[in-house]
Amino acid sequence: MTVLTTPSPVFDCRSDFADELIALARADERIIAVCNDSVGSSNLVAFRAEFPDRLVNVGIAEQDLVGVAAGLANAGYVPFVSAAAPFLTGRALEQIKADVAYSERHVVLCGQSPGMAYGELGPTHHSIEDLSWMRAVPGLRVVVPADPAQTRAAVRWAVASGHPCYLRVPRFKVPVVTPPGAPFETGRAVRLAEGGDVTVIAVGTMVSRALAAAELLAAQGISARVVNMTFVEPLDVAEVMAAAEDTGAIVTAEEGLLSGGLGAAVAKVVVERRPVPVRMLGVPGFAPTGSTAFLLDHFGLTAEGVAAAAREVVGRM
Fold it and tell me: What CATH number is given to the structural domain containing 237?
């Protein structure tokens, strides 16, 4: 079990994204970065300095951003499209659907600063709908790394996969939660803690909070399994089924909209195959103005909030 009994150092996964992309680009001339006037916020300054002819800046034109990337992929390149998640997914959804997914182009869509990472900038800059939107696009893999190690693994996986994918790169700093040697495979979750009373299935920034919640629950006599569901699409159905069968109760936690995201994906599996009590934690609608920490607390996306949801769902068994 991964434990978080003492405060752990936290990391900005965007740095690991950028460093791994540079390392791969040194060995693979197909890799090219495409951005929308976001060189700084995408941490692509060092990439541009080393590969000035392999960074395409289309300006603030997200539909062109994705269209250009699809053309580059058609020419044999592996484009990493890096932009703020709300604008990449919201403004260019048609191009993502038609030019990338339907056309089966090997484009890596990198949604930077997703969830409510932009805090006080408000609902226009929150990317809470992206998991729902991207899950709805057929053929698009949706990947949500939980820490620096998984972010680097996701970049490597994206190059090797040969498929269009959406990679959610967190801005909100997170601790290390991935055990050394943990697998990173398409559609495979990582079980981080064992437990028999309830399973918490989390993604991204919520994984470390789910682990902290498991510690709180253990002190109250409740044994919680914690699963990092790295791939929201394709979902690890076997891991969801194991959670339902072994623990009989599930809590999902995501920094995103409840409609159509991780919780909805898990609930669909459960209701169709093995009905058990499920409690979904996420964002129910547009968020108020406030810091990221305030917003996560407001919606119960904290260790205490996850623990409370777990106690509730166990009580429904």
Answer: 3.40.50.920
Alpha carbon separation from 88 to 63, 67, 110, 132 (Å, rounded): 8, 12, 8, 14
End-to-end, the C-alpha distance of the chain in Å comes to 25
All residues at 6 or more sequence positions from 92 whose CB lies less than 8 Å from its CB, including other chains: 62, 63, 65, 66
Domain count, the chain: 2
Confidence (pTM): 0.95
**pLDDT tens by residue, 118-169:** 999 999 999 999 999 999 999 999 999 999 999 999 999 999 999 999 999 9
Domain identity same for 17 and 163? yes
Q: In 248-281, which residue ranges form alpha helices assigned H by DSSP?
A: 262-273
Do 165 and 240 fall into the same domain? no
Pair 152, 20: CB distance under 8 Å:
yes
d(CA 236, CA 169): 20
Q: What is the CATH number of the domain that holds 66?
A: 3.40.50.970
DSSP category for residue 142 = E
Predicted confidence (pLDDT) per residue in 203-214, tens digit: 999 999 999 999
Residue 113, domain member (yes or no): yes
